[in-house]
Design goal:
The complex is a heterodimer of chains A (about 200) and B (about 100). With about 200 residues, chain A is mostly helical. Chain A contains nine helices and no strands. The longest helix of chain B is centred in the middle third of the chain and has 22 residues. Chain B starts with a helix and ends with a helix. Classes of the chains: A mainly alpha (about 200), B mainly alpha (about 100).
Chain lengths: ~200, ~100
């Protein structure tokens, strides 16, 4: 089989059809990880542009969609690397709030939960939460006040299931620094979800 | 009578442990770290003891796991099944124009 035949069934790049067939799919994939419509739109655009350039490299092996998602994954990682670089150049030292106010400051119970900020029983499962699109809206709103690098570390770890060493390399940080960021993000997000989503009866 | 004594003793042990072990503020940092690497044995014991007597930190750990499990399950789900935003018409047209110019 010649090279040209191997490229079938797609004889030539067809960006118009790509956009119709895969635009929404790629956008949803991107926006869940990047948490911002504009950034996700840019990632989808860059994916199609890169796909157009690299079309010769796609020889019709596997599905077109899998190929495009592969390119998009790289664009998403590029975005996280950029955030890491910018934070490093800007000498960014903010890892996120410490939330001292969650814990008692005085008396013998210093350092233990303040009763009005202590966790409550959520009675929730992943399956229930995933069905609710408004849950992800609250989730993203809760992460939005945190420094971008901290949110990137959180997403790479909790969504993408990346290893510590990989994340440290991508964001140009040390592992102790990563642990602080993850802790701050979790502390903040957990409380924010409790207040804004699970809303315990006071 | 014996029951009362048992309750008193349990209370005393609980109180002593809470005063001796790392605080909740220190424990939540350890809980987070325990999701990143295996803890040294002494830390593991302190964490287990703290969780044994503190339902708040038990829930904290449960919630962090729920957040992780839900995020990863959603990431593994097919994007078609995700509800919520699709590519806006403006963005679609902008990308279409950009791609046409490149072609």
């Amino acid at each position: 089989m010649s090279e040209a035949q191997a490229k079938s069934p797609y004889q030539s790049a067809d960006p118009d059809r790509w956009l119709d067939d895969h635009g929404d799919y790629l956008f949803k994939y991107a926006v869940f990880r990047l948490r911002d419509n504009n950034v996700a739109e840019d990632a989808v655009q860059e994916t199609f542009l890169a796909a157009l350039k690299a079309y010769q490299g796609f020889e019709g092996r596997g599905s077109e969609r899998t190929w495009l998602v592969g390119i998009l994954k790289h664009k998403i990682i590029d975005h996280f690397r950029r955030i890491g670089r910018e934070a490093q150049l800007g000498d960014e030292s903010d890892d996120g709030p410490e939330h001292q106010e969650f814990f008692a400051r005085v008396d013998e119970w210093q350092g233990h939960w303040n009763t009005d900020r202590a966790p409550t029983d959520w009675h929730a499962t992943p399956a229930e939460l995933m069905e609710r699109s408004d849950f992800w809206k609250v989730f993203n709103d809760c992460l939005s006040p945190l420094p971008q690098r901290t949110v990137s570390a959180f997403t790479l770890r909790e969504v993408e299931d990346r290893k510590s060493e990989e994340i440290c390399e991508m964001l140009s940080i040390k592992v102790n620094n990563l642990w602080v960021m993850l802790h701050r993000a979790r502390l903040h997000l957990r409380n924010c979800l409790e207040v804004n989503w699970f809303k315990p009866e006071q | 009578m014996a029951l009362k004594l048992y309750d008193k003793l349990k209370h005393a042990v609980r109180y002593w442990l809470l005063r001796t072990l790392p605080t909740c503020q220190q424990t939540v940092a350890t809980i987070s770290e325990s999701m990143e690497r295996p803890l040294p044995t002494s830390e593991t014991i302190k964490l287990k003891l703290h969780l044994w007597i503190c339902v708040w930190c038990q829930w904290y750990l449960e919630h962090l796991k729920l957040i992780r499990d839900t995020s990863r399950a959603q990431a593994a789900a097919a994007p078609e099944q995700m509800t919520g935003a699709t590519l806006s018409n403006e963005a679609r047209e902008r990308i279409r124009r950009r791609l046409t110019n490149q072609n």
